[in-house]
Amino acid sequence: MTEEPTESRSPEAAGRRLSEADQPHSTAAGHEASIPAYRRLLLATDGSLPALAATVHAIELACQSGAELHALHVTAPESHMQVEFADENLDLLHARPVDGIEAARYLATEAQVRIHTHEAHGPIVDSIFQAVRRIGADAIVLGETGTRPFRQIGLGSVAEAVQRHSSDVPVILVPGRAEEIVPMVKEILARDPAAVPGGASADPDVDWTAATHHPSFRALISAKARFLVPVIVLSLGLYLGMMVLIGLAPGFTGRKVIGSLNVGYLLVFATYVMVWVVAIVYVRVANRSFDSKAANAVSALEAQRKENA
Amino acid sequence: MKALTLVIFLIILAITLGITYWAARRTRTPSEFYTAGRSLRAHENGFALAGDWMSAAAFLGFTGLVALYGLDGSLYAVAALVAFLVVLLLIAEPLRNTGKYTMADVIAYRMQRPQARLAAVLGTIVVNLAYLLPQMAGGGVLVKLLLGIPYSVSVVFVGLAMVIYVAFGGMLATTWVQIVKAILLMASGIVLLVWILVLFGFNPLALFEGVEAKYGSELLAPGNLLKHPLDPLSLGLSFAFGMAGLPHVMIRFYTVPDAKTARGSIIWVMFIAGAFFMITTFIGFAAAYFVGQENILAADPGGNLALPLLAQYLGGGPGSVGGQVFLAIVSAVAFATILAVVAALTLATSGAIAHDLYVNVIKRGHVDERTQVRVARITTFVVGILAIILGLLVQGLNVAVLVILAIAIAASSNFPIIFLSLFWRRFNTWGVIGGVTVGLISSVALALMGPVFLGEEAIFPIVNPTVVSMPLGFAGAALGTLLGGRNREAEARFDEVRFRAHTGAGAEV
Predict the structure, then answer these.
(1) Out of B81, B212, B495, whose CB is closest to A208?
(2) Distance in Å, alpha carbon of A207 to nearest chain B alpha carbon
């Protein structure tokens, strides 16, 4: 941000190169991409490579037409904790997922374009159209997946769905070519490592091994071990011991104690009580001690992440 | 009298379908379809868990076992409660903290190989189908006896109703069905218990003495059902560790927002289901005392109708209006139980196929939300049809046999790999494959060679294979891990899994 953009480095120039090479196309009938006259552009971004290409293109369009630029990031309900397969594109960016909104803000500021940012939570396609109506946008700019989607579920399919459902607002799909975008992002990151902060969906800034060695986490683990190991050994030992006793000594366990009640039934009813008592004690200890220790470990993790980012 | 049964029955069905319709209108994203949008509170999820766990096996099976076999039946009931202690202390929180929709998530996250997820998914599907069979068979027999329609029609009816439940409502609908069902079950159990206590002057010991007077002290002693010395231990192991490997129960921990709520919901279920399990001993003995073992056996050789017959007796006996009304109510509750459990099972199975197999293994995550929901619905229909076909095939098979098999498979193949994924750094893809393969094969083979299928000529003497097959499952997992060589990447990810499992950092809210 402090550096004067030069022709070879500016993202705007990179975007122009990209758009010339790939010919982003508008899909609305009767609309020609040659002389756009947009007033409000909505850019939907998730920080994926195609979305970054779309960001660059949207900034360029806003420059040309003088349109107001709005960037929208939709958090889908399942995007916080991805357990899908790792995306090979992550390696291209040094395993660094990109916060789409921050990237758009950064790139727009560099190109001296005013940008409004929006966050939404919910089904992606529906949220995009809600934003279109709220903003009064007259075009939607989206990345089109030629490559694999990033860590969000299938932006490419979202682009198709948006295109399918958009009857009155033109949808501009920008193809994302990794070989074009990755060098650009790397360039920006090399210049200003804090320019594109990591998103919330993955934590490459976190050193998990260090986190598990942090005193706060060790305190949690040792507190849990101190309580759980003896409790599990004792309660399961009593329960399985009862089962062994009933199996091996049916004569003893069949012996009557109180009226018709025999040793076996007394053990069974005692097990009910034992299980309930252990469960209540565990929940009390966990709520009082484990949760606060876990919270300490998480805040230590957050502190470490901020330091690294 | 049949008409009365039918009317009460249809009213309960209409109520549950209404709940399903209401929930269906609120279900939109995959997250909501699978896990109720993670918005359930502790008591809601606790009741739903109780509903899952108090299946036909508990309501009809435990009472019947107590009526016919005494203490051995009561061992089944108490073991079913201990299962939740193991889940509470060991599995529920780490699993909730690291997973998204299904149990395979945590395994796949550590291993990052399609093969690992595939193995876990196979375990899930086999266990679910094994658990689905007794429910279908139980539902079919119950409806057949109640309404006098043929078994095959009953099974198709159960299958269709369950598909409608799941396909249009998803988890939210099955959750509400489970809650309604759990309340109905508890209410029936409490009414019966109070009635029994009134008849015995509020002295439970008098019931035991009455049973002893009628059948001798042998019924109260061990060894009537579980003949081998290791049988009680094997039963105890199956239930204690099998539930942690039952996907349709564990999927419920993804419906709560945090670990504290997960814990709270287990406390709820331990008191609701635990009290209910304790009550089954009294209901079973009362059935033996009032209805008589010979009448229970005549109605169903498995003893599964002990509770409905007791309700009929307390209402005034067969033929009386009160008796028929009681029979109808209890049977409708039992049917709702089966339907709801079957729906939850179908959901967990279709979740495994749609999310794990289709979205993540076949499509590698390249599927949008709408397609995911559509695939999940199609899968539900396929599983429903499969359940109907399998339900038709198992006609005449003992329901308890299949329940034991499902729980033994879960304890032997699913539990070891989940436990090791959460707690063993070196555990790897080959360990998952080894554990699932050895656990599945040994538990199924030993059960097939056991007394249940072969009777007196059993090659393997213990009813429940878990005492042998669970250690074998662990051994297979350990052997696979060691032979597979070290995977530094997966081991590095263990730190993240460990941190998240214990703290809940980064878990979906």
Answers:
(1) B495
(2) 9
Read off the pLDDT band of A61 (50, 70, 90): confident
Task: Mutation target for B interface from A208, A244, A298: give the one with most B CBs within 10 A.
Answer: A208
Task: Sort residue B32 into left (φ over 0), alpha (ψ -120 to 50) or beta.
Answer: alpha
Residues B358, B362, B366, CA angle at the centre, nearest 5°? 85
The owner of tokens 């860590």 is A151
Residue at token pair 């049916």: A250
Tell me if B349 sits within 8 A of B390, measured CB to CB.
no
Residue B282: pLDDT band (50, 70, 90) is very high
Q: Check: CB of residue A41 under 8 Å from CB of residue A116.
A: no
Mean pLDDT of the region B286-311: 85
Q: What is the pLDDT of residue A272?
A: 95
Distance CA B67, CA B61 (A): 10
Count of CB atoms situated within 10 Å of the CB of A191: 12
- Average the pLDDT over B15-33 and give the result: 59
Which residue, among A42, A208, A284, A12, has the nearest Cα to B110 in the 3D structure? A208
**Of B118, B26, B52, nearest to B346 (Cα)?**
B52
pLDDT band per the 50, 70, 90 thresholds, residue B223: confident
- Provide, as residue numbers in chain B, all residues whose Cβ is less than 8 Å from the Cβ of A44: none
Q: How confident is the model at residue A93 (pLDDT cuts 50, 70, 90)?
A: very low
Angle at A285 between CA A284 and CA A290, to 5 degrees: 125
Residue B364 at interface with chain A, using a CB cutoff of 8 Å: yes
pLDDT at B30 over 80: no
Residue A165 one-letter amino acid:
H
Top pLDDT among A93 and B103 is at B103
> With an 8 Å Cβ cutoff, are A259 and B496 in contact?
no
What pLDDT does residue A190 have?
A: 59
Q: Which amino acid is residue B252, in one-letter code? A: R
Average pLDDT of chain B is 81
ipTM of the complex: 0.85
Cα(B491)–Cα(B38) distance, rounded to whole angstroms?
A: 30
**Chain A neighbors of B29, CB-CB under 8 A:** 76-78, 122-123
Say which residues have a Cβ less than 8 Å from residue A135's Cβ, sequence separation at least 6.
A40, A42, A70, A116, A118
pTM of the model: 0.71
**Is the pLDDT at A300 greater than 60, yes or no?**
yes
**B32 at interface of A, judged by CB pairs closer than 8 A:** yes
pLDDT of residue B172: 55
- The Cα-based distances of B292 to A249, B283, B331 in angstroms read 29, 12, 19
Mean pLDDT over B463-489 rounds to: 90
Name the closest residue on chain A to residue B497, using Cα atoms. A208
Q: Would an 8 Å CB–CB cutoff place B362 in contact with chain A?
A: no
Closest Cα partner for B243 from B101, B2, B423, B410? B410
DSSP annotation string for A184-234 = HHHHHHHH-TTSS---SS--TT--HHHHHHSHHHHHHHHHHHHHHHHHHHH
pLDDT of residue B23: 61
Chain A neighbors of B28, CB-CB under 8 A: 123
Question: Which CA distances in Å does B6 have to B146, B324, B329, B339?
Answer: 8, 11, 10, 16
Task: Locate the chain B residue with the closest alpha carbon to A86.
Answer: B112
Q: Are B97 and B504 in contact (CB under 8 A)?
A: yes
Which H or E run contains B6?
A: helix B2-24
Q: Is B191 an interface residue toward A (CB < 8 Å)?
A: no
In chain A, residues with a C-beta closer than 8 Å to the C-beta of B105 are 83
d(CA B405, CA B398): 11
Q: What's the pLDDT score for residue A276?
A: 96
CB contact under 8 A, B499 and A83: no
Q: What is the pLDDT of residue A128?
A: 83
